[in-house]
Amino acid sequence: MFFLKLHPLIVHFPVGLLVSGAVLLAYGKIQNEEAALTAGDFNLRLGFFCALAAIAVGLAGVVSLDVRPNFKPFLSSHVQFALLTGLVFALALLTKRFLKNRWGKFLYALLVAGGLFCVVATGFYGGELVHRFGVSTPHLTE
Questions:
Q1: Residue 101: exposed, middle, or buried by beta-carbon count in 10 A (0-12, 13-18, 19+)?
Q2: What is the mean pLDDT of residues 20-25?
Q3: What integer best gives the mean pLDDT of the chain?
């Protein structure tokens, strides 16, 4: 139960880093601003590693969760998009590191955009779990 309550407390930091990193990269590319591109790359790297911790804590929390049929599809989607987020951003960082050609830059931008979508989808399903179904919140009446 500890990890179930800890996950919502730590997950917002990597979400903010990943979203701001993607936005800064888009802005830096459009405006040809090197400082924004550098800040975006830094935010993505730091956000990715912080997201790994948030994913690990979330998975540890799922183990102690009493999964009910009414929110099981939302939980499944939340976990799938969280894992996909980690995978997509890992591929993006590997692409940035090892593919320096034109296609590598295009693939990097595509992966960052896909990662941004995955972060938003993960947040949507996580928000539904908390606000619609009351997962990891105290229940006054049951």
A1: exposed
A2: 98
A3: 94
Cα angle 49, 51, 64 (rounded to 5 degrees) comes to 130
Tokens of 44: 């993505």
d(CA 12, CA 47): 10
Is the Cβ–Cβ distance between 4 and 64 less than 8 Å?
yes
In sequence order, which residues have a C-beta less than 8 Å from that of residue 101 and are 6 or more positions away?
A: none
C-beta of residue 123 within 8 angstroms of C-beta of residue 14: no
pLDDT above 70 (res 98): yes
Q: What is the Cα–Cα distance from 57 to 41, expressed in whole angstroms?
A: 25
Q: Give the Cβ contact number of residue 90 at 10 Å.
A: 15
The token duo for 71 is 């929110």
Annotated domain spans of the chain? 2-65+72-131
Instruction: Please tell me the distance from the alpha carbon of residue 142 to that of residue 139, in angstroms, as a whole number.
Output: 7
Beta-carbon neighbour count of residue 105 at 10 Å? 14
Q: Are 44 and 25 in contact (CB under 8 A)?
A: yes
Which run of H or E residues covers position 78? helix 72-98
Can you give the pLDDT at residue 139? 61
